[in-house]
Every structure is written in structure tokens, then in C-alpha cells.
TrEMBL record:
Pfam families given in the database record: OCD_Mu_crystall (PF02423)
Species this chain originates from: Psylliodes chrysocephalus
One MF annotation (Gene Ontology) recorded for this entry: thiomorpholine-carboxylate dehydrogenase activity
InterPro entries membership: NAD(P)-bd_dom_sf, ODC_Mu_crystall, ODC_N
Enzyme Commission (EC) number: 1.5.1.1, 1.5.1.25
Protein name in UniProt: Ketimine reductase mu-crystallin
Length: 320
């Protein structure tokens, strides 16, 4: 069995292939060519910290794999004297014919990249494909996911302004300075207020651990698209509940939604479809003024697709 560490993953990964892998994983989901369950959650007693297991099988010529991501979600890591990321992961990849373990692939970068690319896929198919404007992007959260989403959305879309808000304002300020330098631009703008950041935005991305809403119904303009990525007490804590009643809500998978979004279903929110159906043109939002939400939970088969991609790229570099 080989071990592919995070440094190697970073050398091998790129946005275009990651986007394609997410599109394929979401499509194959809708075509019933995947197997996955809701993830298991093992909680450390007395703490919000979780060990999560995500097994999956994806049937695809290029991205198919049998794998299992082991991921820790430790929101308390940011309070450590030497802070650590709150989400850490490793992915085990198995031979489909023998069950032998083929590789253990670092899952930290993969989780950031694939989650950002899944938001980009949702934005492209739910929003942009309907010829919607891409003037202003609002990013709420400047943690690991917030930063990777900034790179990803800069790569795939041509926003004129990318706004950044974060609970700890200094981190958003730092991020804005760093990203303007990195891309030799001035489109990244620091926002002190989440309300001002959201008002007027065409696309909104939330990537925080908040358990209280940071996006209110009245702030979101008609027809805007939201990618809600973060998980606080619930996986849908970032958006005011009343906004869900006034939007078409898309998910990535029903097995996860049934458990992790049970709170939304309980208050009467109905999910319109999984993103795979939109990619396959089986469903769309007709009303141009309807707000759309992609409630991203993250799927095991996305990690299968990514670990296969990285594994194959790794073997190619070794055999050169
Ligand atoms: N949908 C999916 O597929 C995935 C979702 N996630 C989720 O994405 C979220 C972000 O992950 P990641 O970027 O790796 O984590 P980080 O620890 O790097 O960032 C956490 C972010 O949440 C903010 N935050 C924490 N508590 C609050 C609060 N009470 N109010 C407002 N903001 C808050 C932090 O702000 P500050 O700087 O002020 O502390 C920071 O911006 C997590 O909830 C994680 O579970 C992760 C992976 C996949
Ligand atoms: O999909 C994932 O990976 C995760 N989703 C939410 C919590 C941590 C990991």
C-alpha cells in the first residue's frame, strides 16, 4: 500500500480535473451508479468534536473507486494555543476486485478542493447556466474553506468584486490583502459587516462553523444563488430559516440530507433536487427571481473520485 501525503496531493491536484471529478460524482449519483450511506459520527464525550467515517463506491471509468474517508471535525482546534484546522482527513482507497488496500491519501487538501469545486459546479449549473450575472461574489468565512473557495471561484468565474467577511475581521483583512497580491488585482474587498457583504451580491458562499444565522432573508437579492457549506450545531445553521422557505433548495445527496438536514425537513422545507439532476438537465429553477440555495453536505463518492484521480496521477509521475 502506498501513502500519498498532503504535499504530494498539492503537487498533483488542479482545479479543472477537480471540477470534472465533482461533476462526474454528482451525475453518477443521479444515475444510481454509486453506493454510499449517511456518514457515521463518533462524538468525543462532552465535546463538539467528531470522528466521521464516509465510505463510498463510485462506478466510473475515469473516477471510479472504492474508498473510505476518515475525517475529524474538531471545531475546538481553533482555540488551541497553536491552532490546528478544524477539519482533518485521510482517505483509504481499496482494490475493487480483491479488497486489498491500495493507498492512503492525505484528505485535508482534497476536502478543501473538492468542497470548493462542488460549490463551483452547483453555481455553474444552478445559476450561471441560466445566464445569470456574475458581478459580485460574497464570501462569508475566511478559514480554510473560505480561502480555497476564493481560489476556486477566481479560477472558474469572472467576478468583478469578491467581498470577504469573517467573524474575526483581522483574518478577512489579511486574506483580502494576500489575495489581491497573489492575483495582482484589487477585486478582493474587505467587509466589516456581514449584512453589507451580502446585500447586492449575485452569489454568496458561507463556510463557517456558526450555529446562528449569518445570512438574513431580507439581505439576499432576488435571483441570487447561495452555496452553504459550513456546519455548526446543524448543517444548515448559516442561513436564516425563513430564507429556505423562499428559495429552491438543492442538496448533494438524499441519504445525508435525511439525517443531517432533518431539522429543515421537520419545519416543512422540501428540497427541490440533488445537483446531479440539474447537471443532467432533468430539473431547473424557472423563475429568474427565485433565490437558489445549494446546501452542501459533502459526499463520500466525491472523495472516492478525488483519491482515484490523485492515485492515478501519482502512478503516472512514478512511472515516468
Ligand atoms: N459541505 C462540505 O462538504 C464540507 C463542509 N465543511 C464545513 O465547512 C466549515 C468550515 O471549515 P474550515 O474552513 O475547514 O474550518 P476553519 O476552522 O478553517 O474555519 C472556520 C470558520 O468558521 C468561522 N466561525 C467559527 N465559529 C463562528 C461563529 N460562531 N460565527 C461566525 N463564524 C464562525 C471562523 O471564523 P474565525 O476566524 O472568527 O474563527 C472561520 O472563518 C466547517 O463547518 C466544516 O464542517 C468542511 C468540509 C466539507
Ligand atoms: O464532507 C466532508 O468531508 C465534511 N463535511 C462536513 C463536516 C466535516 C467533513
Amino acid at each position: 500500500m502506498i501513502y500519498i501525503d498532503e504535499d504530494m496531493v498539492l503537487k498533483l491536484i488542479n482545479w479543472d480535473q477537480t471540477f470534472e471529478a465533482m461533476e462526474v460524482a454528482m451525475q453518477r449519483y443521479t444515475e444510481n451508479r454509486i453506493v454510499q450511506t449517511a456518514r457515521s459520527r463518533t462524538q468525543v464525550i462532552g465535546k463538539p468534536n467528531l470522528l466521521v467515517t464516509m465510505p463510498g463506491y463510485l462506478d466510473d471509468q475515469t473516477y471510479g473507486a472504492l474508498g473510505c474517508k476518515l475525517v475529524t471535525f474538531f471545531p475546538t482546534n481553533s482555540d488551541l494555543p497553536k491552532p490546528l484546522p478544524s477539519v482533518l482527513a485521510s482517505i483509504m482507497l481499496f482494490d475493487e476486485n480483491t479488497g486489498l488496500p491500495k493507498a492512503c491519501v492525505g484528505g485535508f487538501e482534497i476536502t478543501k478542493w473538492r468542497t470548493s469545486a462542488a460549490s463551483a459546479v452547483a453555481t455553474r449549473h444552478i445559476y450561471e447556466k441560466r445566464f445569470k450575472p456574475l458581478n459580485i461574489l460574497a464570501l462569508l468565512g475566511a478559514g480554510h474553506q473560505g480561502r480555497t473557495h476564493a481560489d476556486c471561484f477566481k479560477h472558474f468565474f469572472n467576478f468583478q468584486e469578491i467581498r470577504v467577511w469573517n467573524r474575526t475581521a483581522s483574518k478577512a483583512k489579511e486574506m483580502v490583502e494576500e489575495f489581491n497580491k497573489k492575483y495582482n488585482t484589487n477585486i478582493f474587498k474587505f467587509y466589516e459587516s456581514n449584512e453589507k457583504c451580502v446585500r447586492g451580491a449575485d452569489v454568496i458562499v458561507t463556510t463557517t462553523n456558526t450555529s446562528e444565522p449569518i445570512v438574513n432573508r431580507d439581505w439576499v437579492k432576488p435571483g441570487a444563488h447561495i452555496n452553504s457549506v459550513g456546519a455548526g450545531r446543524n448543517h444548515h445553521s448559516e442561513i436564516e430559516e425563513s430564507l429556505y422557505f423562499n428559495a429552491d433548495v438543492y442538496i448533494d445527496h438524499w441519504e445525508g440530507a435525511k439525517t443531517e438536514l432533518a431539522g429543515l425537513e421537520k419545519i416543512g422545507i422540501q428540497f427541490k433536487a440533488e445537483v446531479g439532476k440539474v447537471i443532467l438537465n432533468q430539473v431547473k429553477t424557472e423563475d429568474p427571481n427565485r433565490i437558489t440555495i445549494f446546501q452542501s453536505l459533502g459526499m463520500a463518492v466525491e472523495d472516492c473520485a478525488m483519491s482515484r484521480l490523485i492515485y492515478d496521477s501519482y502512478l503516472k509521475t512514478k512511472n515516468k
